[in-house]
Amino acid sequence: MQKTLTRFLLLTLVLSLGFGQLLRFEYLGLPLYLHDCLVALILLLNFPALARPVRTLASSLSLFLLGLAIGWLVALVLFPLSSLLIPSLYTLRLIAYLMLYFLCKSSSFLIPHYYFLLSGITCLTIGLSQYFLLPDMRIFQYLGWDDHLFRLTLPHFDPTFTGVMLVLAILSSNSLYSTNIFRLTSVVYIIGILLTYSRSVWLSLALTAAAFIRNKKILLVSGILLLSSIFLLPKKFGEGTNLLRIYSLTSRWQTDLAYAQKAGWTLLLGQGLNTLTPITSPSSYPLHPSGPNNSYLYLLLTTGILGLLGWGKFMFSLYRTSSLKPMWLFFFVASLFNNVMFYPFALLWVLLVSATAPSEA
Predict the structure, then answer these.
(1) Model-level pTM?
(2) Where are the transmembrane segments (predicted)?
């Protein structure tokens, strides 16, 4: 009964990721997500069996956990205790994701690959529906989301993160790579990814393809088709569809540089996850993220050198033993441009895929 219920919750968890931010709700002023509630239920249901996953977590991520702990000690010095309550919840969520990964790995829970495919199709369907039926997303700015126009934005209310999730969905099942179903769905996925107008996602996907497509002719043809498709994209009103826009590039670089300069000595030790204060003037919109765009810089600022090295070692171990190396490489490259590595949906996705997919080890 316990295993049956756990399997049902895991399948529901994977499918829920396809709805993105649409399953977000608030309780007592705190933002909650259905997938986080499902993670908590799974861990509670398997509480007696968590001893082994906890030991594995402690041994596999000992260096990261040490950096995380030091960063929080620094945070206790820098900030009043009352301001650290919300950031601490984000830290607990990260640890819960990692515990779920080790639980699935140790218990041999299997999630058929088509559930990830179905979740990705759900994301794609919502995104395409929004693009054609509600292209002007500026009406949601008062809720805290950015004012995107004529871009595929839903279900994550952000073209870049929606694009990231679509790519992860494509690369999450190598058993489909050589099938006609994969080729057909990939074409539709690529259309959706192109309509996000997210150049960082395009570049990350192109670099991943260049690293894994061995046939030079196929790589050349794929590159030509991609570039042709990009130039054929509709150019509509607004900076979002302007492929030559440089403001977003320069502003990201300046923001990340400002965070590094502001950190000072805490760059070595970190100052606790989710404790970074905005570099620019605070926004009146609560959903605007505060922190660098680069995931590795974010990790360094919050957990210090030890945290960065420990997390990097853990991530590389997952990549090295994975049968889905293209997915992982895309995840790593995309994290250079946006904080993809700690975007809850993306991190939980790759951990669940890795925990239930066949290993090369």
Answers:
(1) 0.93
(2) 30-49, 61-79, 85-103, 115-134, 154-177, 189-212, 218-237, 296-316, 328-352
Residue 177's pLDDT band (cuts 50, 70, 90): low
- Angle between the 344-356 and 34-45 helix axes, to the nearest 10 degrees? 40
Distance of CA 220 to the CA centre of its chain: 29
Q: How many helices (H) and strands (E) does the chain have?
A: 15, 2
User: How far apart (Å, rounded) are the C-alpha atoms in residues 314 and 63?
Assistant: 9
Looking at 89-103, 179-193, 202-216, which range is the least confident one?
179-193
- Using the structure block, give the residue that is written with the tokens 């826009």: 245
Q: Are 74 and 301 in contact (CB under 8 A)?
A: no
Q: Which amino acid is at 303?
A: T
| 3-class state of residue 47 by DSSP | helix
C-alpha–C-alpha distance, residues 321 and 302, integer Å: 28
Question: Strand (E) positions, the chain?
Answer: 24-27, 30-33
d(C-alpha 292, C-alpha 299), whole Å = 9
Cα separation, 58 vs 61, in Å, equals 6
- 296-355: per-residue pLDDT in tens? 999 999 999 999 999 999 999 999 999 899 999 999 999 999 999 999 999 999 999 998
Q: Report cis status (omega within 30 of 0) of the bond before 159.
A: no
